[in-house]
Automatic annotation (TrEMBL), chains A, B:
One of its GO terms (biological process) is NAD+ biosynthetic process via the salvage pathway. It comes from Crossiella cryophila. Residues 141-309 form the Quinolinate phosphoribosyl transferase C-terminal domain. Belongs to the NAPRTase family. This is Nicotinate phosphoribosyltransferase. Pathway: Cofactor biosynthesis; NAD(+) biosynthesis; nicotinate D-ribonucleotide from nicotinate: step 1/1.
Amino acid sequence: MTAADRAESTALLTDHYELTMLAGALRNGTAERRCVFELFARRLPNGRRYGVVAGIGRLLDAIEKFRFNDAEIHRLRDSGVVDEDTLGWLADYRFGGDILGYPEGELYFPGSPVLTVTSGFGEGVLLETLALSILNHDCAVASAAARMVSAANGRGLIEMGTRRTHEEAAVAAARCAYLAGFTATSNLEAGRRYGIPTAGTCAHAFTLLHDSEEDAFRAQVEALGVHTTLLVDTYDITKGIKTAVEVAGSELGAVRIDSGDLGVLARQARTQLDELGAPATRIVVSGDLDEYAIAALRAEPVDAYGVGTSLVTGSGAPTAGMVYKLVEVEGRPVAKRSSHKESRGGQKAALRRHKPTGTATEEVVYRLAGEQPERLDGDVELQIPLVRAGQRAGDLPTLEDGRERLRQALVSVPWEGLALSQGESAIRTSFLP
Amino acid sequence: MTAADRAESTALLTDHYELTMLAGALRNGTAERRCVFELFARRLPNGRRYGVVAGIGRLLDAIEKFRFNDAEIHRLRDSGVVDEDTLGWLADYRFGGDILGYPEGELYFPGSPVLTVTSGFGEGVLLETLALSILNHDCAVASAAARMVSAANGRGLIEMGTRRTHEEAAVAAARCAYLAGFTATSNLEAGRRYGIPTAGTCAHAFTLLHDSEEDAFRAQVEALGVHTTLLVDTYDITKGIKTAVEVAGSELGAVRIDSGDLGVLARQARTQLDELGAPATRIVVSGDLDEYAIAALRAEPVDAYGVGTSLVTGSGAPTAGMVYKLVEVEGRPVAKRSSHKESRGGQKAALRRHKPTGTATEEVVYRLAGEQPERLDGDVELQIPLVRAGQRAGDLPTLEDGRERLRQALVSVPWEGLALSQGESAIRTSFLP
């Protein structure tokens, strides 16, 4: 293991109490009890009609790097978090259990068993915080992104929210947006890490830097070619568009408008571009767009949308509200009982029912040790093996596979489930006893 | 430079267009024009009355690691983002300019020049995305955290939101919470990276793992001592508290309640603990707390709060809405002019006016080349040197200094500025011509 690998340990990206629970369980011999943990959402946020599973690929990478190397052990010893016996156990820690889960791009609904971790208590409890961090963030962003893709109705979407969120969250957000069907991202690290197409040309600063807008456009066209996108709203938009076509000619790739009433301005720009003999020049709009604003622009001559803040903040729901609950110990179902937040004990699986037309009708969640659902035509089992005895399962879906899976899944949603307004889950979840 | 350092380059945590702007500017000789960029918020989110500056320390670290090493250059070449001349310039890139800014823990208001970057255009434009990512995230979390600290009115606050946000954003959020006055964090990496106290004991899973609650409490007390915090709401809370005191004795550190009507339950728990002869046992509550819920519990016998989701998501404002604008080129003020989002050109500084009692009255933002404010008793200049000619300024405030600065700054806010309700900025910002 190289220094770089060690530096990348994910083992301390976790809550203090996961380690103190381990210490307690090691002391009285319960740490090896066979446990099943389930990760799920009790409800969808804000009247959303579906959630999108995202982050599974990142989670599997993070689990492989979940190692207590010397640096982590020293830190835990110095800060007195756990005793020496526990430190010894941690130094040898490798997750050796099994993980089943929904593949990326699959939809989820309240109670869907998005992830099922089976292992000794200590092994599995240590992954709780990390699994929740990754899935709560990524599912929140992907779920918002999918609504924007629906609203854009086939037009291009460029993710440009990096500056509105934590610098590493931004990389993950770009991945979620691509999973959901965005065309490209502005984030260069996401391009490197995940092979996502990146895009971008110039900001207002580039125009302001120059002695005139014409100088700026000329510099950009010389550097990036006539197929570039010129930002035309630094001064007067009509003059900006005229200058843009004068400088780049009718081959100009696109103009971008980043302020004002985007619908009105897009219409004016389209008319002006056509009159200037640039009918193939596209119109890109940006500036505080969310799924509602995107939908509101459907009737306008907009060719692509740049989306920032609302994407990376989950458009009002910045976290997916998933929980990671112990549901089974040595084959015995367990559940918290003191409040309305009751959980259903026992390991569960799920299948989704579909009409012959392919429309989804129901999510059936059933206990492996309980009543089994009748199997009907159109049923799809939702969990797949992700990790077997600590090893990543073979042939896992790629990011591109997830993108295609979501595309198909959204086709299967009943039409009212794609409405942007607040409402019930697109399909109901049935829990078998 | 070691492999680990290289792996940590922050240079690709940026937007594609920062590099294409650089390429255009290099091509026509404008990349070296002396520029001033200003980072500020046009407004505070959601009727907030003040913002808290956070992330400066993280930003200075990130700028030091902003290097285009071989791996970054190869990636940019392979993906065709910029031309060879630009790659050559990037390979030698070191930020060599000056940065002034508000220190961490200082308050900011609409238009406050939180950061001022002076350098050649290329040098400064490259930092835009990274600076915004860090400050937009950290200021959003710290601003929410400060309201929670105010609401807690001296009682302890434990940050436990790691599982609700991106795994690296969580580490930064823990730092922001501590800056704002939280007592501790659950996040172990924040403990390692920033020296913040970490805390945590057990979750419901630990109780469920055991054959009885008593077994679980006994295991925890054996591992963590009688001064630990026992989570008493897995089954029946009254029985849980009884068992807790039976197992740990009257020296029990605390009980935690994580569900239900926390006010009612805290009162019942206090009465019961006193009757059981454990008057020194503290009561910790958690579960969907935000600043309003914390304030609502002020009259109850609560000793400490655990706060998660609302902290890491900025309690409704997950991003601070800061922008990074080019305001001056070769001594000439510049500003976008096409819309209502107008910026004020020219490099600016700011001072805060105070009454003789120490209460802040006004934020005065003035152009270095414009009218200078009259200097009055109680005026405090707000920017400090952070970077000089590319080198971090000496004697920069520490995280602890920021914590103390914020504590004092909140004392200086007019009383209505500390109200949790939506309203105007606590003090007005005056812009001198």
